[in-house]
Design brief:
By secondary structure, the protein is of the alpha+beta class. The chain has helices spanning 2-22, 31-62, 66-69, 89-97, 104-109, 111-117, 121-129, 175-180; strands at residues 77-78, 101-102, 140-145, 152-161, 164-173, 191-200, 203-212.
Length: 213
């Protein structure tokens, strides 16, 4: 019986000492630690917002809904943010008259030509090629699609750095095909479209587009 009492007493002492230690300066959160914790929560919330926005963007591109897609852009758009050359005669003349700026009206009226110019169907292919939900744990998603006996393969990439989101799609030379056809100087018309968006408030906003190839 005495041993049991001593054991209970010892447990109570250990429990009390643990409570005191948890309230001591060693285990208290200082201002810096508290800010770090808030920052982590903020980053988690930010990532959730980005994923939600990407899901909405996926639907907008699936439906080719210009009324939804225009909301990702802030008008007027400076043509320096887009790798634009010639879209169509009316668009090019109006853009030149606007000192290179693209108004919302000009964008909407010529959206089909802009869509084709930037091969925007690649957005839908990108969202099919990767699982957006995986961005909860990953900062980057990549996918490649190779077809046997074809010189090109398609690639897709989503990368998140803080509040910046990079969406990329394009084509590249298939190395197996190239090795099997050494006589062909060019096996693929390589291209890459990279779109940069930034989370502003609770919405993704277009920053710039870069095209290679």
């Amino acid at each position: 019986m005495k041993k049991l009492v001593y054991f209970i007493f010892a447990v109570l002492l250990i429990f009390c000492s643990c409570k005191q230690e948890s309230g001591s300066g060693k285990n208290e959160k200082g201002p810096g630690e508290d800010k770090m914790l808030k920052g982590k929560l903020g980053n988690s919330d930010k990532r959730a917002l980005i994923i939600a926005e990407l899901k909405q963007m996926q639907l907008a591109f699936r439906d080719k809904d210009v009324n939804k897609l225009e909301n990702y852009f802030r008008f007027p758009l400076a043509d320096s943010t887009l790798s634009l050359y010639e879209i169509n005669e009316d668009f090019d003349l109006m853009r030149k008259a606007n000192n290179g700026n693209i108004s919302r009206d000009l964008f909407v009226k010529n959206f089909n030509d802009i869509y084709d110019y930037f091969q925007m169907g690649g957005f839908s292919d990108l969202f099919k090629a990767v699982d957006i939900a995986e961005l909860k744990q990953k900062a980057e998603l990549n996918s490649e699609h190779h077809v046997k006996d074809e010189g090109c393969y398609t690639f897709y990439r989503i990368n998140i750095e803080g509040d910046i989101v990079n969406l990329q799609y394009g084509t590249n030379s298939d190395q197996e095909y190239r090795a099997a056809h050494p006589d062909e100087e060019e096996v693929c018309g390589e291209s890459a479209f990279n779109w940069v968006f930034k989370l502003e408030g609770n919405q993704l906003r277009f920053v710039r587009e870069m095209t290679a190839g």
